[in-house]
UniProtKB/TrEMBL annotation:
This is Nucleoplasmin-3. GO terms for cellular component: cytoplasm; nucleolus; nucleoplasm. Plays a role in the regulation of diverse cellular processes such as ribosome biogenesis, chromatin remodeling or protein chaperoning. Modulates the histone chaperone function and the RNA-binding activity of nucleolar phosphoprotein B23/NPM. Efficiently mediates chromatin remodeling when included in a pentamer containing NPM3 and NPM. Residues 111-137 are annotated as: Disordered. Belongs to the nucleoplasmin family. The keyword Hydrolase does not apply. GO terms for biological process: chromatin remodeling.
Length: 137
């Protein structure tokens, strides 16, 4: 699998950014959002960032993921919030600039086979661990 660092900036003039992959690519793609933060030049106003995607019925849905304000919350850590591309990030309120950072993981289909070989039951895992010995005084 490949791991790439990605990011974008939303502003009053660039209110949205769409992350998409080639539809003919047969790899699995995961986009993880790590940090959303206000950058230099931001005003003390509410900046609402939405994630726009599609639900199981292929209907567009928009979910707010961050509400940033310079004086009280200029940065939000999203702990690698995982999304399935294509996904659009939209500045629903405020003028930014808001920087979004995260990572894009590409898992090639042939790489997925290693997971099947690594399936050990909990009992087998416990048997493989060395016993913990008390510390010597």
């Amino acid at each position: 699998s490949d791991l790439l660092f990605t990011g974008c900036e939303l502003t009053a003039s660039t209110k949205s950014y769409t992350f998409q992959v080639d539809e003919e690519d047969d790899s699995d793609h995961i986009l993880a959002l790590s940090v959303v933060c206000l950058t230099d030049g931001a005003k003390d106003e509410c900046n609402v960032v939405e994630v726009v995607g599609r639900n199981h019925e292929n209907q567009e849905i928009a979910v707010p993921v961050a509400n940033l304000k310079l004086s009280c919350q200029p940065l939000l850590s999203l702990d690698n919030f995982k999304l399935q591309p294509p996904v659009t990030f939209r500045l629903a309120a405020g003028s930014g600039p808001v920087h979004l950072a995260g990572w894009h993981q590409i898992v090639h289909r042939e790489d997925a086979s290693f997971e099947e070989d690594d399936d050990l039951s909990e009992e087998e895992e416990e048997e493989e661990l060395a016993p913990i010995m008390p510390a010597k005084k």
